[in-house]
Protein backbone atom coordinates (compact mmCIF):
# COMPACT_ATOMS: atom_id res chain seq x y z
CA UNK A 1 0.00 0.00 0.00
CA UNK A 2 1.29 3.47 -0.80
CA UNK A 3 1.26 6.23 1.78
CA UNK A 4 -1.70 7.77 -0.05
CA UNK A 5 -3.93 4.69 0.17
CA UNK A 6 -2.87 3.41 3.59
CA UNK A 7 -5.60 4.14 6.16
CA UNK A 8 -4.57 6.63 8.82
CA UNK A 9 -4.25 5.18 12.31
CA UNK A 10 -5.62 8.36 13.88
CA UNK A 11 -8.14 10.86 12.60
CA UNK A 12 -9.76 13.91 14.14
CA UNK A 13 -13.16 14.60 12.63
CA UNK A 14 -14.47 18.15 13.02
CA UNK A 15 -17.46 20.07 11.77
CA UNK A 16 -20.83 21.51 12.67
CA UNK A 17 -22.70 19.34 15.16
CA UNK A 18 -25.29 18.06 12.71
CA UNK A 19 -26.47 14.87 11.00
CA UNK A 20 -23.63 15.05 8.46
CA UNK A 21 -21.02 15.08 11.23
CA UNK A 22 -22.67 12.07 12.89
CA UNK A 23 -22.78 10.25 9.53
CA UNK A 24 -19.06 10.90 8.95
CA UNK A 25 -18.13 9.48 12.36
CA UNK A 26 -20.53 6.54 11.90
CA UNK A 27 -18.99 5.73 8.49
CA UNK A 28 -15.53 5.55 10.06
CA UNK A 29 -16.83 3.29 12.83
CA UNK A 30 -18.26 1.02 10.11
CA UNK A 31 -14.76 0.91 8.56
CA UNK A 32 -13.28 -0.43 11.80
CA UNK A 33 -12.22 2.78 13.55
CA UNK A 34 -12.95 3.13 17.26
CA UNK A 35 -13.79 6.25 19.22
CA UNK A 36 -10.80 7.68 21.07
CA UNK A 37 -11.63 9.89 24.01
CA UNK A 38 -14.63 12.10 24.49
CA UNK A 39 -16.07 14.41 21.87
CA UNK A 40 -15.29 18.11 22.17
CA UNK A 41 -17.69 20.96 21.46
CA UNK A 42 -17.13 24.64 20.92
CA UNK A 43 -19.18 27.57 19.67
CA UNK A 44 -17.87 29.70 16.79
CA UNK A 45 -20.30 32.56 17.35
CA UNK A 46 -22.92 31.10 15.02
CA UNK A 47 -23.03 27.33 15.52
CA UNK A 48 -21.76 24.46 17.63
CA UNK A 49 -18.63 22.78 16.22
CA UNK A 50 -17.90 19.19 17.23
CA UNK A 51 -14.68 17.19 17.21
CA UNK A 52 -14.21 13.46 17.70
CA UNK A 53 -10.97 11.51 17.54
CA UNK A 54 -11.02 7.99 16.10
CA UNK A 55 -8.27 5.37 15.91
CA UNK A 56 -7.82 2.33 13.72
CA UNK A 57 -6.75 -0.49 16.03
CA UNK A 58 -3.98 -2.71 14.76
CA UNK A 59 -1.55 -5.08 16.41
CA UNK A 60 1.84 -3.61 17.26
CA UNK A 61 4.64 -5.70 15.82
CA UNK A 62 7.55 -6.44 18.14
CA UNK A 63 9.81 -6.08 15.10
CA UNK A 64 8.56 -2.60 14.20
CA UNK A 65 10.96 0.11 15.37
CA UNK A 66 9.57 2.84 17.59
CA UNK A 67 9.56 6.23 15.92
CA UNK A 68 10.10 9.34 17.96
CA UNK A 69 7.68 12.19 17.46
CA UNK A 70 9.23 15.63 17.62
Model description:
- This protein has one helix at residues 19-30; strands at residues 10-16, 34-43, 48-55.
- The protein has a domain at 10-55.
- With 70 residues, the chain is an alpha+beta fold.
How are the SSEs placed, and which strands pair?
Layout: E1 10-16, H1 19-30, E2 34-43, E3 48-55
Antiparallel strand pairs: 1-3, 2-3
Short description, anyone?
With 70 residues, this protein is of the alpha+beta class.
Biggest sheet, spatial arrangement of strands: 1-3-2
Helices and strands, in order, run as EHEE
Radius of gyration: 15 Å
Roughly what fraction of the amino acids lie in strands? 35-45%
Please state the average pLDDT score. Answer: 87
Low-confidence stretches: none
Instruction: Kindly state the number of beta strands.
Output: 3
Estimate percent helicity: 10-25%
Calculate the terminal CA-CA distance, rounded to whole Å.
25 Å
Q: Which class best fits the helix and strand makeup?
A: alpha+beta
Main sheet record = 3 strands, antiparallel
Number of helices: 1
- What form results from the Cα inertia axes? elongated
Amino acid sequence: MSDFTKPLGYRLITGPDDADFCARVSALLDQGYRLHGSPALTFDGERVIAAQAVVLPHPVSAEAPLESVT
